[in-house]
Structure formats: C-alpha cells, structure tokens
Amino acid sequence: MPISGTGNFPRVLSGSRCSMSAVVWSLVGFLLVLHMYSRFSNINAVNGDIQLRMSNHPLVHELEQVEKENIQIPHRKGKRSPRAAKRRPKRTTTLIDEFLDENSQLRHVFFPDMKTAVNPIKDSGNDSYHYHPGRIWLDTEGNPIQAHGGGMLYDERSNTYYWYGEYKDGPTYHAHKKGAARVDIIGVGCYSSKDLWTWKNEGIVLAAEETNETHDLHKSNVLERPKVIYNENTGKYVMWMHIDDANYTKAAVGIAISDYPTGPFDYLRSQRPHGYDSRDMTIFKDDDGVAYLIYSSEDNSELHIGPLTEDYLDVKPEMQRILVGQHREAPALFKYQGTYYMITSGCTGWAPNEALAHAAESIMGPWETMGNPCIGGNKMFRLATFFAQSTFVIPLPGIPGSYIFMADRWNPADLRDSRYVWLPLIVGGPADRPFEFNFGFPLWPRVSIYWHRKWRLPLSWRASK
Ligand SMILES: *[C@@H]1O[C@H](CO)[C@@H](O)[C@H](O)[C@H]1NC(C)=O
Ligand SMILES: *[C@@H]1O[C@H](CO)[C@@H](O)[C@H](O)[C@H]1NC(C)=O
Ligand SMILES: *[C@@H]1O[C@H](CO)[C@@H](O)[C@H](O)[C@H]1NC(C)=O
Questions:
Q1: In the chain, where are the structural domains located?
Q2: Which mutation among 247, 248, 250 tests ligand 3's pocket best, with the greatest number of atoms within 8 A of CB?
Q3: CB within 8 A of 93, min separation 6: which ones?
Q4: How far is the CA of 208 from the centre of ligand 2 (A)?
Q5: Burial of 54 from C-beta contacts in 10 A (0-12 / 13-18 / 19+)
Q6: Region of poorest pLDDT, from 73-77, 137-141, 241-245
Q7: What pLDDT does 5 receive?
Q8: Which residues line ligand 3 (CB under 6 A)?
C-alpha cells in the first residue's frame, strides 16, 4: 500500500470519446432500446425481483439515506507543510491537499480529536451502537482501537466477532529520505465483540521479533493487512498477512496459526505466492470451505487469485491474473447470491483515491469492473472513498445483501492515529454504469457504499444475535 514513488494516480476511466461518428450514435440508440428491454425483463426474473425489492428493504432503508457534505475549503494563508506539498499529486483537488496537510484548518473534519471519541462504555442513550466514521474509537478499557488494515473473523463456536489488524501504537518515522512513512512492527492486534460496536482488547496475538534481525517479524520490517480464517478440518485459526522489508522489496505473504482465535499465533514462514511479488492482499473463505488468496502483483499492476491448500497453510499451483493493468490494491471480497464482489483502491501510497467495485460469477474470474460504489458526501468524498482505503467487507447475516464496508483513513503524519471508516454497503438495485464486456447491459445489481456521519445497524439485526 504505501509504496513510495508508485505514482499511479486515478486515471480517467471514460476512455477516448474523440471518434464519435454516426455509426456510434445509431448503435447508442439501439443499445438504449435493448437496455430498456433488459431492465424490463430483469423485473420479471426471479433474481431481478429480489434485487429491486432489496433496495427498498425496510431494514436498510435508513442506511440508504443519502447524506451530503458541504465543506468550505478555507482561504489559504501562509505555507503548507512540506510533506503535504511534496505528496500533492498532479490531478487532485484542494480537498485532498487539505486532507494531506497536517496543518490544515480542516484537520478536525478528517481527524476529529479525542473529545469526540466513540466510547461504547460511556456512550449510552442516543449515541449507543452508533458508528461515527473517522472519529477515534475506544475499546472497553478506554484506549483507541489499534487494528489497522484489519479483517473480521466471525467465530461460530463462540458467536463472537474478532477484529484483527496492525497494532501501530508507536512513533511514525521515515526509514530514509525516500522511504514511506512507517511504524515499526509491534504486532497484530485482536479485539472481540458480540455487537460489532463494543470491542474488548484481546492483546497482541502475533508479536514482533525484537532481536533477531533476519526474522520476518523483526520490528524493522513491515507487517500489513493480517486476515484470519478458521479451518474446519484442522481446527486451526490461520492468519495470512503481507510481509515486507522497509523498502517493500521482499513483497511476500506470511502465514501463522493458532488453536484459539485470541492466539498466540505461531509464525510459520513467508513466501512469494506462485513465485510472484505480493503486496496488498486478503484471503476469502467460500461457502464450500475452499479459501483463496488474492494479492496485488507485478508491481501492483494486477491482482492474482488462487485457492489455498485444504489446511490453508499454502497456495495450490492454480493462479489467475485478474484486473490486469488496472493497478488496484487493498482488495476486500464478499459474496452475494452466488456472485463474487470485490472492492479495491488505486495505488497512491497513504493518500486516498477512488474505490472501484468488481464482480465475477466465478471467483477465479473473469472479474469485471462495475465502477465507483460510493454514494453521498460530496464529489471529492466519493472520489477519495470518504478519505479512506478498503480493507474488509463484513457480511451481516439476517439482512441479505447488507454488509459493513471497513476502511482505513490513514494518517501518514502519525499512523497510529489512523481512523476507521465503517459504512453500510448494500447490494441491490440496478447498476448505474455500464460494465466493460457486456455491451452496457447490467449483469449484476449495484454495489453501494453510503456515506453517513453517524449511523447504526438496524435494531432487528442486534435482536437476532
Ligand atoms: C436524544 O434524542 C432526543 C430526541 O432527538 C433529544 O431530545 C435528546 O436531547 C437527546 N439526548 C441526548 C443525551 O443527546
Ligand atoms: C532468526 O530468524 C531466522 C529466520 O526465521 C531463523 O532461521 C534463526 O534460527 C533465528 N535465529 C535465532 C538466534 O533465533
Ligand atoms: C532501503 O533503501 C535505502 C535507500 O535506497 C537503502 O539505504 C537501505 O539500505 C534499504 N534498506 C533495505 C532494508 O533494503
């Protein structure tokens, strides 16, 4: 994720419109007629019926309210911090500049201070169970949650959610002049909850290696995006993570196992999956128990996907290249009604960029790009994924088509103070953008991530737990 000097800023997706001709226009007319026909036939199809009703599902109706943001960019006085100036990408607008500027007058909009922290132990009444994307979020002991680049495990044996992520409560520094902002490895943090709101710190379940400099987990290295799944056959909890050196040249995955969701995890080894470089990654366990590794490869220009062995401790030889040449990272997968979906980000280091949703009938592909899933806020919020980067999508059993989108609002000036942006993600309703290979016919319902300053899960969801 924070590869310095990888300047792949969001590109214009619309392609060349220069060669419009009469032929194209008549094709457009023809496609419009066919499109209307396909919408009509969708309504009659069993799936289509569900999709159209879903987007008006009473439980999620509140989550689908569109909230707007009207932020006035302050008049600039004086100098911006050198870091913000250096990072300023060519094509972005001033709101991203403000976001990256540690001294911005808008700092409190993106990084509200401790006074507004969400404290599930104290916040009762009107605020209970409410998510406030971007605010500091405290655990049951009153400390800010440290689980960045995280993932969620729902443990059926204990009916408990476990949130794993990078424990980054150390100083941010640059290893050398051209290096990305970093925090030494401390370990993988784990938090447990029954309600997805009140989080108990279960401690560091995989700790850094303090002395052995040749060890993957030596504090001078990089450990990112830990994800844990449970293996029914072996009874082990298996963790996969991105392992790297401080310059991001090792580009490997690491694997660790434990008998308990709360660890301690035993670190097994790192490897380059299928022999390729691997940076941002995730794992996904399908309904049939087969798990997959998905990773950014070929210098982040494409993603690779392949099944894990039955014990989840290695990859099998099969591998598919997907989203080739699209320069995507931070993959988060989920499945709805037999279709696979994925949210990814662009590759701009710690700076936010535009998310894209992708879909596939088979997890091994082909994957098609559906467009930006973000709704609400304002245009810059949507083009910057609400100033956050995808990390995981949590299914909400009991409300089909509803998920929580988990993202990180990175604070490169002080990475430990990076924030969590959790928002409702809903699959339903007709797609609003044509896909790549299907001549403009929506094959899948829309994936929508709705901006909210404050929101909570439907009451009935908690009642069903
Ligand atoms: C809770 O909400 C009600 C109704 O909106 C309001 O009257 C009340 O002041 C709120 N209480 C707190 C503690 O914010
Ligand atoms: C240091 O780590 C390496 C790599 O994991 C290992 O092979 C070696 O035995 C370790 N050395 C010590 C002294 O533990
Ligand atoms: C990282 O790169 C810097 C500058 O290019 C170099 O000085 C340093 O030795 C490298 N560190 C590692 C761990 O490769």
A1: 21-54, 55-71+106-463
A2: 247
A3: 380
A4: 13
A5: buried
A6: 73-77
A7: 41
A8: 176, 245-247
How high is the pLDDT of residue 50? Answer: 35
Q: pLDDT of 156-203, one tens digit each?
A: 999 999 999 999 999 999 999 999 999 999 999 999 999 999 999 999
Distance CA 285, CA 171 (A): 35
182 CA to centre of ligand 3 in angstroms: 14
Query: Which ligand is located closest to the Cα atom of residue 127?
Result: 1
CA of 124 to the centre of ligand 1 (A): 11
Contact 188, 164 (CB under 8 A): yes
Name the pTM for this structure. 0.85
Closest residue by CA, ligand 1 atom 5: 126
pLDDT value of position 325 = 97
- 375-380-381-385 Cα dihedral, nearest 10 degrees: 90
For the segment 386-396, what is each residue's pLDDT rounded down to a tens digit? 999 999 999 99
Instruction: Give, as one character, the DSSP assignment of residue 137.
Output: B
Confirm or reject: Cβ of 317 under 6 Å from ligand 1: no
Q: Choose among 259, 252, 306, 255: nearest CA to 280.
A: 252
DSSP for 21-40?
Answer: -HHHHHHHHHHHHHHHHHHH
Query: How far does residue 213's CA lie from ligand 2's centre (Å)?
Result: 8
Q: What is the CA radius of gyration of the chain?
A: 22
Taking each helix axis from N to C end, the angle separating 22-44 and 46-54, rounded to the nearest 10 degrees, works out to 90
How many residues would you count in the chain? 465
| Distance (Å, whole) CA 378 – CA 448 | 15
Please enumerate in sequence order all residues whose Cβ is within 8 A of that of 225, keeping only pairs 6 or more positions apart, or say none: 1, 149, 150, 151, 166, 241, 242, 280, 281, 282, 330, 391
pLDDT of residue 34: 52
Residue 447: pLDDT above 70?
Answer: yes
DSSP string, 316-382: -S--EEESTTS--EEEEEEEETTEEEEEEE-B-TTS----EEEEESSTTS--EEEE--EESB-HHHH
**pLDDT at residue number 310:** 98
The architecture (CATH level 2) of 55-71+106-463 comes to: 5 Propeller (2.115)
